[in-house]
Amino acid sequence: MKAGQWDAQNKKVVINDIPIPELGKDQLLVKIKSASLCHSDLMSLARGHGDTVTMGHEGAGVIEKIHSSAEGKGFKVGDAIGFNYFINVCYECDGCQIHNSRCENTNLPMCQGFHTNGFFQEYVLVDYHTAVVLPPEIDVRRASPLFCAGITAFNAIDSCELHPGQWIAIVGCGGLGQYAVQYAKAMQYNVIGVDISDDSLDSAKEYGADAVFNSKTQADTYVDEIRKLSGKGVHAAAVFSGANAAFDGAIPLLRTNGLLMVVGIALEPLQINTLDLITGRYRIKADSTGVPRRMSKAVAFTAKNNIQLNVDFRKIEDLPAMVDDMKNGKARQRQVVTFD
């Protein structure tokens, strides 16, 4: 089968022919229908791998085979499914109820696409614990971004615990932010998009944002304008950017006791004023893709509200160019590899 891999020795993306994997305990053999490129994949390449590994941690596909140990777990051959990417964990301990990277019963949690083969290949092995059957409203050929970007965005917006009519700022309106705008509107919040890219802000408007502001070109005015528009500041600001400046710029947007939702992975430690926290200037929470048991709620909400991104369909041979486009800021839509 074809696989898009990171060649660690030569530091480049290559397309290789590799064997179709053999089923093991608790596993499903899945024919990939869509796999998408995420900024986290580029972060992984920057860190480097010791071995050549198939890239990609956002995937969706159709079950081809089921190991006997995974029978009777709610899946059947032919089901369209999406899946998380953490494996080699117990899924049951206290740590796994929070995040699978915190598993208390293994010293080596693994991420498919980072530590072991991921989803830019024609067939993949999926632990049934991480999988969910897709409702018919979700097209498996464009579903892969949901299984990192989408679920992360849903969890973050859902965890803000706002009420209809309250205000939320989506700071960083790239792929995750565009999902977040749609989820926030579906939850009946007033949504403000903030970014330094007019293209990203145009997309946020397309997905329903009530107002958008460029924090670079409107640097002197956007905070006051947002505070005026929202009454006295937004009730929550969810930061989907990894830029430290995005976090610093989000705090002034908040009203007293507003919520700073941390989603983006900042390159440097955040500067937090503890006096602000103890006096109720603002609160802090954080969220991510989370654990498999949270996926069903996100998937059902996505299907009910017809939430999806515009995607750029590509072939596996395009993966090197896809990576270059993302590195160079040329990717305007989520890039999705499909297999026939």
Describe the structure.
By secondary structure, this protein is α/β, with parallel strands linked by helices. It folds into two domains: 2-148 and 290-337, Medium-chain alcohol dehydrogenases, catalytic domain (Quinone Oxidoreductase, Chain A, domain 1, Alpha-Beta Complex); 152-286, NAD(P)-binding Rossmann-like Domain (Rossmann fold), CATH 3.40.50. Helices cover 24% and strands 27% of the residues. The protein is built from nine helices and 18 strands. The protein has helices at 39-47, 149-159, 175-186, 198-206, 222-229, 244-250, 274-278, 295-304, 319-327, and strands at 2-7, 12-17, 27-36, 53-54, 58-66, 80-83, 86-87, 110-111, 123-127, 131-133, 167-171, 190-195, 211-214, 234-239, 254-262, 282-286, 311-314, 334-337. The strands form four sheets. Strands 3, 5, 6, 9, 10, 17 and 18 form a seven-stranded mixed β-sheet that branches. Helix 9 (319-327) links the parallel strand 17 and strand 18 (334-337). Helix 2 (149-159) crosses helix 3 (175-186). The longest helix has 12 residues, at 175-186. The protein is globular and about 60 Å long. The mean pLDDT is 95.
Summed up, what is this model?
Helices cover 24% and strands 27% of the residues.
List the helices and strands and how they pair.
Layout: E1 2-7, E2 12-17, E3 27-36, H1 39-47, E4 53-54, E5 58-66, E6 80-83, E7 86-87, E8 110-111, E9 123-127, E10 131-133, H2 149-159, E11 167-171, H3 175-186, E12 190-195, H4 198-206, E13 211-214, H5 222-229, E14 234-239, H6 244-250, E15 254-262, H7 274-278, E16 282-286, H8 295-304, E17 311-314, H9 319-327, E18 334-337
Parallel strand pairs: 11-12, 11-14, 12-13, 14-15, 15-16, 17-18
Antiparallel strand pairs: 1-2, 1-4, 3-5, 3-9, 3-18, 5-6, 6-10, 7-8
Helix pairs in contact: 2-3
